Amino acid sequence: TGIGITEEDQKRLFQPFTQLDSSLARQQSGTGLGLTLVQRMADLHGGSVVVESEPGKGSRFSVILPWNEGLYRRLPSTTVTNAPAIPPKSMHCKILVMDDNHAVLSLYVDYLKSAGYQVYSASNISHGIELLHKELPDLIVMDIQMHGMFGVDLIRRIRSSEEPKVSGIPIVVLTALSTTRDREECLAAGANLYFYKPINLQKFVKDIELIYKVRSGKETS
């Protein structure tokens, strides 16, 4: 129940920092980010958000997410006793995820853990570098727009390391920068893969598995 939303205003609902009543005397609070974040998170899961509304009566928002039977069976459960344990094939693969957006970082970490990976996370460059040398991950997943150092510079720093165990770690860039120039610059600096946000997490994990197989010698091409 509530004030409802006109059909014309519904077209602007999911635009960031948009408030339908932007007057100084408006009665509804908010930053105009809530619905945008919900939609982005639904997109990351391969889903969507729809709205039904009638002015003066109220609104109904529905989040639609795809059902992944394979992922469900890998999740630990206290109610489904027959669900198999997380597959051991990826448990020894360590992934370092770096992103200064805490909500996005948490989403990636949870998804990768549910897929059976050992995950370390950092929300800033200095912590990421510390974990890099301490844990020596098998793979680095990183944004290139982080406070403290531009991602391309970090990629170059990793590739120029005198420690072979550090310089040879595969790097996957996951960023909102979608220009060809940014992509080419990151790949030239030494990134192995370049993905745009939002991303299909199922395909993302498959690509990670392929990189790990190649690096561990289980695949030759």
Which outline best applies? elongated
SS-based structural class? alpha/beta
Distance between the termini: 57 Å
Q: What's the Cα radius of gyration?
A: 21 Å
How many strands, which pairing sense, and closed or not: the largest β-sheet? Answer: 5 strands, parallel
Overview of the molecule:
Strand 1 (48-54) and strand 2 (58-64) form a beta hairpin. The chain is built from 9 helices and 9 strands. Strands 4-3-5-8-9 form a 5-stranded parallel sheet, sandwiched between helices. By secondary structure, it is α/β, with parallel strands linked by helices. It has helices at residues 7-10, 34-44, 69-74, 102-114, 125-135, 151-159, 164-167, 180-189, 201-216, and strands at residues 48-54, 58-64, 94-98, 118-122, 139-142, 145-146, 149-150, 171-175, 193-196. The radius of gyration is 21 Å and the shape is elongated. Mean pLDDT is 78; it is low at 22-31 and 75-89. Helices cover 38% and strands 19% of the residues.
